[in-house]
Amino acid sequence: MRKKWASRLLAMMLTGVTVVSMMPANIAHAEEADGQQGTTYYVSSQNGDDANDGTSEKKAFKTLDKINEITLGPGDKVLLEKGSVFTDQYLHVQGSGSAEAPIEISTYGEGNRPRIDANGTGVWYQDYGNHLDNTGHKWKGNVSSTILLKDVEYIEIRGLELTNDRETSKVDDGLKYNDANVMDRTGVAGVAKDKGTVDHIVLDDLYVHDVDGNVINKHMANGGIYFIVEKPTDENATGASKFNDLTIENCSVVTTNRWGIAAAYTYAWAQLNSAHLNEAALEKYASSNVTIQNNYIKAAGGDAITTMYVDQPLVQYNVAEDCSRQMNPTDYPSGWQRVAAGIWPWKCKDSVFQYNECYNNQYAYHGNGDGQAWDADWTDGTLYQYNYSHGNSRGAIMFCGAEAVNTTFRYNISENELTGPLDLPGNPDAHIYNNTFYMNENIKSIFDRTGGNAVLENNIFYYGGSTPLNQNWYPGGTLQYDNNLYYNFANTPSGDKNAVVVNAGTKVLEDAGSGPSSNTSGIAYIKENASVFDGYKLAEDSPAINAGKVITDNNGYDLEHDFFGHALTDIPEIGAAESDYVTVTATSNVYNVANDQISGLAKHTTVKELLKNLNIDSSTQVTVKSGDKVLAENDVVNGGCTVTISYGEKSKTYTIVASSDCELKSTVYMMTGTTIKIPSTEKNPATVSEVKQNVKTSSTATVSVISDDKVLANTDTIADGMTLRIPA
């Protein structure tokens, strides 16, 4: 029996070899002669023929129909000839690559990018499988996508030009461009459904434009690039569907409806629907390792870039300009969901948004319920840092809603946001520190909407108007201010006990208000030419230098560097920029430092304690003296001592001023005038120590009991006629 089984196996193997040797070369995913896995297919609208086998430039296919018929495999490549235009065509990829050999879709030849003009073709049916978090959102229906990636993985697409407009299409004939029934369209749509976790998709260097999708629909695959997660047919068999290792980079997305780039709304939204997102639910349902970087988004009908239901997305070095193009009553007659911001997360965990730029997000003054550059929107643990925004119709940043928790906004620069830089509609918390907010003459408020809670520290609020601005610093919610710099304001927050108040004309910044007003290159200036922001560096001898407080991030984020990449020093600056200048000045959040004097020291303060509570540049030399004697760190500092800070030829000396507060604040004993009545008996006499414990004075004062000009010890007994002395 064993011999017979072996013979059958050998026959099958031989048959298999014979069949493979007779198969056409373009179907086998064999290793090529150089050891590389997969087959390369060529497609040329100019020189191809669909009767060819497509496996060489000279035998290229003519249309994408031939590629749509092939189930691609690991190592396969699809190369479109530059200069080709594929009209009324689409590319709906079948088959997946592998981690070792991803499928590559790219270009060959010379000339313009190969262009695919879908024109409403490539229609497929989208179905989340259940209604969405807002039941008014459309969740199923026909979608036209120039490229569709459904349940395929290990795919990398580069160098293509994609459109999907209505001008040459008969689809939606008879419907106005903004009719609610217009079909949704995408440049690139990605769908995860019946494959569990869909791994490794890269979109690189795509030019996606003129995608005339539905003006209204937010969560259909509707816009330039849109990834969604549908309900699996059998979740028990496949596991929850989601994306992992999704990268969208170096793409230009111009004039698209409704979104620019979005990833990845999910059928499982109800599992990720709390303020503090559950770790187990995130691991099971949230997409992960999503990176969106180095993209240029212009004139999106709605939002520019949004991550949705993603764990720890990274969004960086993107530029968004002139977005929310259709968020107005003319293009969008219905007021429902007529809201769009720039670059932001929805229901994500620990998002990082950094080095992005957003200009001229439109129509907050004419129909757009949002209009900000940035928006921490019902999301958990968002970090915005090192971003630049300018001229947006609402604020720089919105902290949106009761479930926008654990948000940090730091080391950003905002210039001339039309309704003020900050928008806090009902958020429970936000930590806003070391930002620079510049507002010109026409901007009359720091805030747009209010009611949220925030801690604001180490920020520069710079009003560039002709006369000082009287600002309502407490428009609603709970706002806590500390150690901010206020330039050209008629008033400051009453709660900011460490406010740095600066009059107009004082040199704070090198050239305030000189940031770029647009970015036509599409490459983030902070990456390509950071010198355009030099006007926001601190001027020499700026009152912001060494005036910052040491911040502990409320949400646990480590502090790394400033907007310009400079390392943070032990004594930080106020605002978004650290300074290269070395100053010989001192500030303090503990003592009073003014007019070359330092006061407010507690009694018995040592040199070590004094220097610990002074903010002094670490590059300087500091000497504390009593007369001509240099004090050691454990010596006590008294009134008249001096603190000299020096660096090179520069130096500054401060004098320690003894407190003048020698008042008796309170006591448990009865008093008449300056007489204190102290209960004492022969059997239970009162001691000096007990008296000291039962009187309250300033922390800078000392207390002693005198008898016949002699200072009594703590164990001595109190007697009539003794004197209580309180020197400060």
Please describe the structure with a list of short key phrases separated by commas or semicolons.
mainly beta, 728 residues, elongated, 15-stranded parallel beta sheet
Describe this structure in words.
By secondary structure, the protein is mostly beta strands. Among the domains are: 592-656; 664-725, no CATH class. 7% of the residues lie in helices and 31% in strands. It contains seven helices and 53 strands. It has a 15-stranded parallel β-sheet that branches. The longest helix is centred in the first third of the chain and has 21 residues, at 2-22. The radius of gyration is 34 Å and the shape is elongated. The termini are far apart. The relative contact order is 0.05.
**Unreliable parts:** 1-31
Distance between the termini: 108 Å
Radius of gyration over C-alpha positions, nearest whole angstrom: 34 Å
Counting DSSP H or I runs of 4 or more residues, the number of helices is 7
What fraction of residues sit in β-strands? Answer: 25-35%
Major sheet characteristics: 15 strands, parallel
Average predicted local confidence, pLDDT: 92
Number of separate strands:
53
**Inertia-based shape:** elongated
Structural class: mainly beta
The proportion of residues forming helix, as a percent range, comes to under 10%
How are the secondary structure elements laid out?
Elements: H1 2-22, E1 40-43, H2 65-68, E2 77-81, E3 85-87, E4 91-93, E5 103-108, E6 115-117, E7 123-127, E8 140-150, E9 155-158, E10 161-164, E11 184-192, E12 197-204, E13 207-211, E14 223-229, H3 235-238, E15 242-249, E16 252-256, E17 259-266, H4 279-285, E18 287-293, E19 296-298, E20 305-308, E21 310-311, E22 314-316, E23 319-321, E24 343-346, E25 352-354, E26 357-359, E27 374-377, E28 383-385, E29 388-390, E30 397-400, E31 408-410, E32 413-415, E33 422-423, E34 431-433, E35 436-439, E36 454-457, E37 460-463, E38 479-482, E39 485-487, E40 500-502, H5 525-528, E41 592-594, E42 597-599, H6 607-612, E43 621-626, E44 629-630, E45 642-647, E46 650-656, E47 664-667, E48 670-672, E49 675-677, H7 688-693, E50 695-697, E51 704-707, E52 710-711, E53 723-725
